[in-house]
Amino acid sequence: MSASAEQSPLTVAIIGAGPSGIYAAEALSQQSEVAVQIAVIDRLPVPFGLVRYGVAPDHPSIRSIRHTLERTLEKSGVRFFGDVTIGRDLSIAELRDTVDAVIYAYGAGSAKPLGIPGEELFGSMAAPEFVAWYCGHPDVHPDIDLVRPPAIVEVLITEASQAVVVGAGNVALDVVRVLIKSSSELADTDMADEVLDSLAGKRVNDVHLLMRRGPAYTAFTTKELRELGQIEDLDIILDPATLDLDPSSQAVADLDKITARNLVVLREWATRAPTGASRRLHLHFWTKPTRILGEGEGDQARVRGVETERTAIVADGSVSGTGEMNAVPAQLVVRSVGYHGVAMPGVPFDESTGRVPHADGRVIRDGGFSVDEYATGWIKRGPTGVIGTNKSDAVETVTSMLTDIAAGALVAHSRVGALDRLLAERGIHPLDMPAWHRIDAAEIERGLSHGRLRTTLAHRSDLLAAAGDDRP
Ligand code: NAP
């Protein structure tokens, strides 16, 4: 390494301003071994990724992690580059030419398919789309002047009285709560006005949760599960016999504290007598969907229910169908069976895992380590864990980077300012943290103007206007 290279800060671009990207910026800015300049880039005009667009609006304490993430983006040596799309505004190769290292932190952007007939019917949607809708994501709240059909969820939610949610994870619980709660129960959240307005027209009063395995094999955390039992005017209906544990389920419950706690919650629910509540949650363990049933022809075809098959555990803990078929009536089906990573042009990607191939965060390209590419978060480890899991994940990746710097494999090339120059040459004006603060103030003002603490601006045009940006 030359003397001038030693003095020049290492320039790092992090793609994705969600928790994983910002935790990587935090880990980099907290170390003192090497001077760094960090650009946290996001295609959206606002930072915070899944903390803003994934965490359920009725979980304000988790959403408040935003304030910690915000402080990292305000640190000296860290800058937010909002509304810059890699692959459109500049390619990965161009980005790698302007900075010393890139960290991929762009999450897992698609839904895992169920792989059953009828999945494409009108009325069937993937949880990530439903979540994006109720969180006010601009991708599913298009600007009016872009002449796109209204989000199907707005139509569905006002028409369906029975809904099926498939999956036994925390996202399924989020979806269930939003389907069950009334708009007045959600009014103290930061949900976008148009989302609350649509929810006010909601007719859903029966939600069926289909879980392909038994109560010992769910991916729920206890706090989130328990929350369902605290919703007023809701009867939770489950067959107590499904809580009888076979030996393998019992072994899981004996070993795993969360499973044991979840079982306590479920068993208490099973003792509750129906109260005649106006809303019902039906829990179906050992039940897998085999077909989404439709009615009507061609474009008019829409969901009328879900055909299900009872399952039983097999030796390796997986399940197989027993041949015992049933059907659940529903006009809305939300498939919540996990997220899947998406390939970014120019970035190594393993389609089978939905992840960027790596070892300890070092990206593997063409069979070897790429000296300037790293990964963190869901695109690195898959869509697992809670928000905080991304912190230790980012530390692992940054530790690999620092090791590579110390070994002389990753070096600074005096590239300070190169990214700004390239974007300026292209006429691209990233939104920075002052722009975010203007959006933040506008959301608070919009909320206060009708008695709420804050209202998410769901449309890109509104976000840009609030940022003081007059681009189309
Ligand atoms: P998840 O935790 O991986 O759960 C996915 C669920 O889908 C599992 O129960 C899985 O069952 C089921 N599933 C998968 N394929 C299926 C199929 N073909 N048919 C039927 N069921 C199927 O995923 P997630 O709920 O999307 O959550 C993603 C991550 O975000 C998780 O780590 C979660 O904890 C986290 N998260 C946390 C919170 C919170 O802390 N409040 C809120 C939301 C999300 P099997 O086990 O049988 O495969």
Short description:
By secondary structure, the chain is an alpha/beta fold. Helices cover 35% and strands 21% of the residues.
With strands numbered from the N-terminus, the spatial order across the biggest sheet is 3-2-1-4-18-17-16
**Small molecules (ligands, ions, cofactors) in the structure:** NADP nicotinamide-adenine-dinucleotide phosphate
Low-confidence stretches: 1-5
Radius of gyration: 24 Å
Helix percentage:
25-40%
- Beta content: 15-25%
Q: Number of DSSP helices?
A: 18
Shape: globular
Number of strands: 18
C-alpha termini separation: 46 Å
Mean pLDDT: 94
**What characterizes the major β-sheet?**
7 strands, mixed
The SS-based structural class is alpha/beta
Task: Please supply descriptive tags for the structure shown above.
single chain; binds NADP nicotinamide-adenine-dinucleotide phosphate; 21% strand; alpha/beta; seven-stranded mixed beta sheet; 472 residues; globular
How would you explain this protein's 3D organization?
The structure is a single chain. The protein is of the alpha/beta class and 472 residues long. Helix content is 35%, strand content 21%. It contains 18 helices and 18 strands. It has helices at 3-7, 19-30, 49-53, 60-63, 65-73, 92-98, 127-134, 152-159, 170-180, 193-200, 222-229, 247-255, 257-271, 378-381, 389-406, 418-425, 433-449, 460-466, and strands spanning 10-15, 36-42, 78-82, 101-104, 110-111, 124-126, 162-166, 206-210, 234-238, 279-284, 287-295, 302-313, 319-329, 332-335, 339-340, 358-359, 362-365, 368-375. A 7-stranded mixed beta sheet has the order 3-2-1-4-18-17-16, sandwiched between helices. The chain has a 6-stranded parallel beta sheet with strand order 6-14-7-8-10-9. Strands 11-12-13 form a 3-stranded antiparallel beta sheet, with no helix packed on it. Helix 7 packs across helix 9, helix 8 runs parallel beside helix 10 and helix 17 packs across helix 18 (460-466). The relative contact order is 0.18. The model is unreliable at 1-5 (pLDDT under 50). The chain binds NADP nicotinamide-adenine-dinucleotide phosphate. NADP nicotinamide-adenine-dinucleotide phosphate binds next to helix 9.
